[in-house]
Amino acid sequence: MAAALKLGFTPFTRRRGVLIVFCGENLKFGSVGRRVAAELGETLRRAAAADRFTGKAGSSLDVMAPPGLDVPRVVVIGTGKQTAPTSRDLIKLGGIATGKLPKTASAATIVAELASRALKPDQVANLALGARLRAYTFDRYKTKRKEDDEQRPKSIELSFACSNPASAEKAWKGRGAVADGIVLARDLINEPANVLYPGEFARRTSALSKLGIVAEVLDVAAMRKLGMGALLGVGQGAAHEAKLVVMRWNGGKRGVAPIAFIGKGVCFDSGGLSIKPAQGMEDMKGDMAGAACVVGLMHALAARRAKVNVVGAIGLVENMPDGKAQRPGDIVTTMSGQTIEIINTDAEGRLVLADVLHYVKKRFKPKLMVNLATLTGAIVVALGHEYAGLFSNDDKLAELLIQAGEATGERVWRMPLAAEYDKMIDSKFADMKNTGGRSGGAITAAQLLQRFVDKTPWAHLDIAGTGLGSPQSDINKSWASGWGVQLLERLVEDHYER
How far apart, in whole angstroms, are the C-alpha atoms of residue 125 and residue 32? Predict the structure, then answer.
């Protein structure tokens, strides 16, 4: 089972357990690192020569400490050529450092210093964020420990030795809130669908009330009264009833219009009557990754007391085949009054979002709306698993999202919206149909969503390639990375929290 990680901040003079230090190319250490290197003496030089270790970025050297040192071993991690590190660089470095910890280590100290400088408090906090994310595992349903797990400690005390521990601790409160939000999103996505169905997902959002978030749950009767025929149509074949959760964080000035984030929450997607192939269907427990991101983001913003008004809304359904399930050829009426012909019941996420987008726009009149959804396989074909697809009716909002993506590593690539694509979802029998065919599938899905936002600045993030089955990285070794929490938290902090 995974060891619990306990983070702390100490002066440079205090160290406990395995010692981790950083060095640049040609074994260039900072002042603290040079003292450690001097203590190791010939042991370090011989080990570096044997492993041909010179401090290149990403390389590492594990040295058993000679008698007389107060630590059992020293791990040296190369950072390569010295440049001013970005927050993204430091988060990655924290993940690398945690990944180099010996399996049996119960305590470790990371020296928060590069060859060129000691890290500032906010930089130390980013280093700690990377460490926290790398340490994450989801193994709560494992009942047996593997042989090598028997050697692992139940908890690891990880200390960051720095020049100003008190200030680093203060900076960590903000970064720690983001870490908690990402971990929450990962947990939700990794949960099996028999545990996390719409009702249980909605229940878990109530825990956000302790942070000051007001959560409201709309049931089927309430949504039917509002006329949400598209969302309800998706869930009508499922045993678990659909829910709509609206979360509000009022950290800004009273009366100021909020910014809104909307998430697709299909807790399991069988495809409905247009059923998916069996191979890989188990991954569809993660078809609620957009909703999980919104919940994680709301947690992060509230936990760090963000000075902004935010609405988070998630449409929670299961898409199941049943005698009551909607059929290809059915026509549903959305809350906006527009009608949609169902061509493929597996194109369900856009139906959920259509009603939630209109509801949020009408009720809250937000400054902007950003929705996230594991919406189409077409976006994976186009962009793979490294970038999410970005569609927007507002150039400024799109550019801000691109900048936030580059800063955090949760990158987005803007895709087109155009009248030519819009025509592809016109229907002979209704105002539109829910799919325009294989060609440009991610685009026509976005075109449908755009019909429900009017002139509100809006962005749609198609996270099918990044939200579940996420790429393995230095800060993520889980099936779900909690993609989007960092991106949107950075967007809010940099541009809407003033």
Answer: 19
